[in-house]
Amino acid sequence: MSALQTVTASRSLDVARIRADFPILSRRVHGKRLVFLDSAASAQKPQAVIDAERHFYEAEYANVHRGVYWLSQRATDAYEAAREKVRRLLNARETREIVFVRGATEAINLVAQSYGRTFLSAGDEVLITHMEHHANIVPWQMLRDEKGIVLKVAPIDDAGELDLDAFARLIGPRTKLIAVTHVANALGTVLPVEAVTRLAKTYGIPVLIDGCQAVPHQAVDVQALDCDFYVFSGHKLYGPTGIGVLYGKAALLAAMPPWQGGGDMIRSVTFEKTEYNELPWKFEAGTPHFAGAVGLGAAIAYVQSIGYDAIATHESELLAYAMRELSKINSLRIIGQPRRRSGVVSFDLGGVHPHDIGTILDHDGICVRAGHHCAQPTMDRFGVAATVRASFAIYNDRDDVDALVAGLSTVREVFRL
Amino acid sequence: MSELRDLYQEVILDHVKRPRNSGALAGASHRADGDNPLCGDKVTIFLSIEDGRIADVRFQGRGCAISLASASLMTEAIKGKTEAEVRAMFECFHTGLTARDEEDAANALADLDKLAVFGGVREFPVRVKCATLPWHTLVAALDRATQPVKTE
C-alpha cells in the first residue's frame, strides 16, 4: 500500500460503523447518550469479542491440555490459537514466549517474584520512572522489602517527560533491571522506550515495558524494541477482564523458576520430585482463563481488522481536537504537556475537586476517571491529589469531546467559576 | 441541573468557599484522622470537651466539596452538644442520606436544621461516603476519649 493510500484509508475510518460494533454505546445513562471517556481504565467490548467468548462456552468448551476427547482438543486449539494471535500482535519470535496471566499487574508480579527473587540480591537496583502505575512500583517495593534490593526512580520534568539524561545517570553497576511504562496512564506521555532499551543494552541490563496504555493505540514490535519483557492487560485492548499477557525472551523465561505451582505447569509429579512443564505452560499453573484468552484473540483480530494506522490517525486527530477545545476553557489546566501524547488527557478545572466534576459529568452520561489513576507519585510530582482524566478509544468521536466540554461548562456554572 | 442543584446547594458552596472552624485546635482533648483512600479525601477533627459538652471543634482537611462542606457544617452543628446528642445526630444524618424510603430520610433530616442541605446526596450513592467521612472521624475522636492528644 502506498503512503497516499494509507492516509486515505486512515481518513476513511468509519467511527459510526465502529460505534455500532459496541453494543453498550447504544445504551443511555441518566437519559443521556453514553459518552465513554474512561477507556484507559478499561475499554468497552465489541460484539465480536462478546460473540467469540459466548460461542466458545456454547460450542467448544472443555478444560485444556487434559482431555483426550475431541472437545478438549478443540478448546486447547482455540487457546493456543489465541496465543499465536498475541505472538503476531507483538511480533514475538516464538509462541512459547507468550505467557497468559490475569493482567499486566500479575505479569509484573510474576517477573518480580520469579526473575527478581532468583537473579537479584541485596543492593542490586531496579530502575523505574516517576510516572509509573502502582502496578510497576509496588511489586518492586515488595521485592525490596524481601530481598533488600534498591528501587531507583528516574525523574520527570514539568512537561511530564522522562528526563533521559538523568535516567542514564541512574544506571550503575548494580542496576539489574529496568522497568518502565510505554505510555504513562495518568499523563498520556509516550516514553522513548527505544532509547531506553538501546541504553540498557549497552550495559546488558534487561528491560521490562508496561504496555497497557500503548497496545490499544499503536503497533508494538518486541523484537524491534529489543525489550526483554513486555506486559499488557487484555481488557484495555477491547478484550475480556481477567486475561493479560507476559511476553518474555525465551532464554530469560527458560532460566526463571515457576512462580506458582499446581496442575498444568508440571510434566511429572512424585512426592520426591516434580519436573516442570516447558514454556510457556511452566508459568500457567492451574486451569488458565482460556475462555478469556479466546476473547482476547477475537479482540486482537478486531483491532487488526481496523488497523493501527487508521486507529492512530483517528485517535491523534481526536486528541488534538480535545486538547484544542479544552484549552479554550477558562481556568482549565492540562496536567503534563508531553511532545508525544497518546490516549489520555488529565486536567484540573479551577481547583474543583475531580470527584465533584466526575459527579456532574456523570449526570450528563459522561464517564471520566476522577482520582489519582493508581499513579499517586505522578500526582505528587504535579502537586495535585487527583485529576480528571478523559481517555480516548477507537469508538470516540467529536460529539464525545463536545459533550465533555459542555459538561465542564455545567461544572463552571454549578461552582460559579 | 435541578438534581445537581439539590446536591450542590448554595449553603454547601458557601461552606466550601468559606469553611467554618477550619484549622488545628490548640489544646484539643480529642483528635482523629479520617480518610477515604479511594478518593484521597482526608480530614482531621479536633475536639475540646468540657463538662461533657463539646466546647470547641475544628477541622483540617482536603477533599471534594461535599466532604469539606459536611465537615464545616458539622462543626457548627455540634458545638455545645453533649456526646450522646452528637452521636444521635450522626444517626439521623446517616439515615437521612441512606434510607431507602424517601419519607424516612426526610424525617431523619428534619430535626437537623442546616444539615438537611445534604438531603440531595441520597440521589448520589457513591457520594454518601464523602458526606459521612467527617462524622465517622468525629465518632472516632469521641471513641478515643481515653487517649489524650499529644502536644508537639
Topology:
The complex is a heterodimer of chains A (417) and B (152).
Chain A: H1 3-11, H2 15-20, E1 28-29, E2 32-33, E3 35-36, H3 47-60, H4 70-90, E4 98-101, H5 104-119, E5 125-129, H6 138-147, E6 150-154, H7 164-170, E7 175-181, H8 193-203, E8 207-210, H9 222-225, E9 229-233, E10 244-248, H10 250-255, E11 266-269, E12 274-276, H11 290-306, H12 308-327, E13 332-335, E14 344-349, H13 354-363, E15 366-367, E16 369-371, H14 376-381, E17 387-391, H15 398-414
Parallel strand pairs in A: 3-15, 5-6, 5-7, 7-8, 8-9
Antiparallel strand pairs in A: 1-2, 4-10, 9-10, 11-12, 13-14, 14-17, 16-17
Helix pairs in contact in A: 1-12, 3-11, 4-11, 5-6, 12-15, 13-15
Chain B: H1 2-7, H2 10-17, E1 30-36, E2 41-50, E3 53-62, H3 65-78, H4 83-98, H5 102-110, H6 128-143
Antiparallel strand pairs in B: 1-2, 2-3
Helix pairs in contact in B: 2-3, 3-6, 4-5, 4-6
Task: Walk me through this protein's architecture.
The complex is a heterodimer of chains A (417) and B (152). By secondary structure, chain A is α/β, with parallel strands linked by helices. Chain A has two domains: 3-44 and 307-414, Aspartate Aminotransferase, domain 1 (Alpha-Beta Complex), CATH 3.90.1150; 50-304, Aspartate Aminotransferase, domain 2 (3-Layer(aba) Sandwich). Chain A contains 15 helices and 17 strands. In chain A, the strands form five sheets. In chain A, strands 4-10-9-8-7-5-6 form a seven-stranded mixed β-sheet, with helices on both faces. In chain A, β13 (332-335) and β14 form a beta hairpin. The N and C termini of chain A lie far apart (51 Å). Mean pLDDT of chain A is 95; it is low at 1-10. The model of chain B is unreliable at 146-152 (pLDDT under 50). In chain B, α2 crosses α3 (65-78), α3 crosses α6 (128-143) and α4 packs antiparallel against α6 (128-143). Chain B has 152 residues and is an alpha+beta fold. Chain B has a single domain (2-143), classed as Alpha-Beta Complex (Sufe protein. Chain: A), CATH 3.90.1010.10. The A-B interface holds A 352-356, 359-360, 363, 371-372, 385-386, 410, 414-416 and B 1, 3-5, 7-8, 13, 38-41, 62-66, 124, 126-127, 130.
